[in-house]
Amino acid sequence: MPAPASFLAEMGNLDGEIHLTWDTVYGASSYEVQYKEHIDTASWQTVKVVTQSKLTVPGLVSGKSYAFRGRAIGPNGEGP
Fold it and tell me: What are the 10-residue block averages of pLDDT along the chain, 80 residues in total?
């Protein structure tokens, strides 16, 4: 499975909320989304596994920078 393309993060309607969207990957049954605080020592944490190519992430601290990444999951396992 290829990695999802056009991964986009936009501020949500509430403080500490981010809306994520990405292009659908052909053959993917779900997507794993991870995040970390945007510093070198932070480790990646799974936010959620979803079946659609969008996710709202609540509970982030306003004013901090975060990095997000996602991968497609299909019948042969997880992609990059």
Answer: 93 94 97 93 95 96 92 94
Which residues lie across from 19 on neighbouring strands?
Answer: 10, 56
8-74: CATH superfamily: Immunoglobulins (2.60.40.10)
Q: Apex CA 24: angle with CA 51 and CA 16, to 5°? A: 65
Alpha-carbon distance of 56 to 50, in angstroms, equals 11
Token pair of 43, please? 């480790």
Domain locations in the chain as residue ranges: 8-74
Task: Write the CA distances from 19 to 3, 40, 41, 73, 75, integer angstroms.
Answer: 19, 23, 24, 20, 27
